[in-house]
Amino acid sequence: MDNLLESQVKAGLFRIFKDRFNINLNELGEEYFEKSILGKDFQLSARDLLYIYFDIKKEFNIIIPEEDIASGKFSTLKGLIEMVANQKLLDKVSV
């Protein structure tokens, strides 16, 4: 994955989590990137996933594939970063 793209995606996701949930992801270590965002560390609810879904669509101007959600990519920060970056790459290729 492109490091610049990954950095841009992280910055956007960090902004979403800060603005929406007042969670500063910059203060968390890399080990949190593989933890469930619905788990005790983040304490987000299923409803919060909807907010994240729509915030990601708006922030990155992408369509999130249903299979990415069903496969569990939508449940961790690492998965979110990979999912968004892959969609941005696909958008570049299809232009």
Automatic annotation (TrEMBL):
It comes from Ruminiclostridium herbifermentans. InterPro entries: ACP-like_sf (IPR036736), CHP04069_acyl_carrier-rel (IPR023972). It comes from the Bacteria. This is Peptide maturation system acyl carrier-related protein.
